[in-house]
Write a structure and sequence with these properties.
Shape: elongated
Order of helices and strands: HEEEEE
Number of strands: 5
Largest sheet: 5 strands, antiparallel
Number of helices: 1
Helix content: under 10%
Oligomer: single chain
Structural class: mainly beta
């Protein structure tokens, strides 16, 4: 499919087409969000509703190699969330089939 035929010519067009859709957002600090995108700006600040946050917590093993340990997953839900853009690594729109 030709990207220009779907109205995507620059990166923010993909975000614009995802308004009012459920998106996946990867943040710094091993955090991930899924929620409905309501607004965004040029700094990638986002307003999301019906949000589920997933936090990966790595407990290092004593005397073990760096980067190894047990991983715990914590989840929480929020009704509405403002995400500051400088923490955003990736925004994935819903899959379109």
């Amino acid at each position: 499919m030709d990207p220009s035929s779907s109205g995507i010519q620059e990166p923010f067009d993909l975000i614009r087409l995802s308004l009012s859709e459920r998106v996946f957002v990867k943040l710094r600090g091993d955090r991930e969000l899924t929620g409905v995108l309501h607004a965004y700006d040029g700094h990638m600040n986002l307003i999301l509703s019906d949000v589920e946050e997933t936090i990966m917590i790595v407990d290092p093993i004593e005397g073990g190699m760096d980067g190894h340990g047990t991983v715990k997953v914590a989840k929480r839900k929020m009704e509405m969330l403002f995400v500051r853009g400088d923490g955003v690594i990736l925004v994935s729109p819903p899959s379109r089939t």
